[in-house]
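Q: Could you fold this chain for me?
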Amino acid sequence: MQTLPPFDELKTMAENEPEKLEALRLTMSEEIISNASAEMQPRLRAQMSHINQVIDQGKNPNHTNILLMTELQQQLKRFAQALNAPETLTEHQADIKPFRRPGSQDKSESA
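A: Sure. Below is the predicted structure, expressed as structure tokens.
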């Protein structure tokens, strides 16, 4: 398994070769996911996809860090909720309504 380079090397990459740093992030992430259990891999890939979407929204490195920090705080809040009050995670039920096309009438309405 690949090891993370020292901080100073990462800092230099971020300043001078951001594409190389991004390639390292993706390579190491894929390696970690590939070494996870088969049951966890789909969840980790979904999480990685979500992280990539958050990163894509960033306008600059500082904005990206703030977006990622906000995302992490939301995840930690949900984790704490799952530990401290798991019943609240399923408390809210959706009201599911049948789909009707605009302009179409239900047979019971036309009778």
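A (continued): Helices lie at 7-16, 18-34, 41-57, 61-84, 107-110.
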